[in-house]
Amino acid sequence: MAFSMDDLLWMGKVLQAAGQAELMPRFNRLAPDQIARKTSAFDVVTLADERSEAAIASDLARRFPGALIVGEEAAGRDPELLERIGGRDLAFVVDPLDGTRNFASGLPLFGVMAAAVVRGEIMAGAIHDPVTGSTAYAFRSGGAWLEHEGGGRRIDLRVAAPVPPDQMDGVIGTNYLPEPLRTRVNQRLSSLSTTCWLRCAAHEYRLAAARQGPALFYNKLMPWDHAAGWLLHREAGGHSAHFDGSPFLPAHMSGGLICAPDARSWRDLKAALLD
User: Do 46 and 146 touch, CB atoms closer than 8 A?
Assistant: First the structure.
């Protein structure tokens, strides 16, 4: 089953509609009983997540009958969905509200993401920011770009120029690293110029694909958090791989992930934090 550039632009509009109809009306308006804890105090779900996912999944199913749709909340109810991503002609991986904890806390740093996976390979991705109305797009071998609300202005995306680690900005997520690796990596963060963590992969990947963007370091890999962003970073000229140097695929949920401007800066960052 094919997936075209026109399909990608349509998918971006689906994310925009979900953001406008399901997320923004509920931002800063959620009642306590509309926020629930999943696996931890950090891992929460809201009514907005559920309504956004239902709207996106419904639109995708109508346009692509027979495609596998793996939403974050649906996969929580049926984990076996994750095992089917790599074996289908067409699958969609959807994060209906990335940065849920930010959203639930009233912090306007969240996004909506979706990726199209064709026979195990990420073909296209879109990351929408409901607050600004802008959407970042990536199409395999077709580049990465940002479109502002209304589609009036397009900005091609490129990663930052490579620099040594002591000049490198990094979004470094260490909270899911096992000990003693977590402590060791945290002790080495001062070897970079600056580090942060936004609690929102949607915005972290959008930053990394911009010319002044940071390098990225993750341990936990859920496909809805990384599929669209990984392709955005790749099409913006970046280099990424698991901690052992092997390539990332959307069915991979372990092995860590480092995203850097090029292969040399990837090796330098790995050496600074892991070796």
Answer: no
The structural domains of the chain, with segments of one domain joined by +, span: 5-156, 165-273
* pLDDT class of 54 with cuts at 50, 70, 90: very high
The pair of three-digit structure tokens given for residue 254, joined into one six-digit string: 């372990």
Tell me if 57 sits within 8 A of 35, measured CB to CB: no
Backbone φ and ψ for 41, nearest 5 degrees, come out as: -65, -25
Residue 185 DSSP code: H
Nearest alpha-carbon partner for 110 in 253, 206, 37, 215: 206
Query: Does pLDDT of 83 surpass 70?
Result: yes
Angle at 259 between CA 112 and CA 158, to 5 degrees: 75
Separation CA 219–CA 222 (nearest Å): 10
Residue 71's H or E segment, with its range, is strand 68-71
The CATH label, of 3.40.30.10, 3.40.50.300, 3.40.190.80, 3.40.190.10, for the domain at 165-273 is: 3.40.190.80
State the CATH class of domain 5-156.
alpha beta
Strand order in the sheet with 169-172: 194-196, 169-172, 215-218, 257-260, 239-241
- Predicted pLDDT of residue 12: 97
Reading the block at residue 47, the tokens are 């009514």
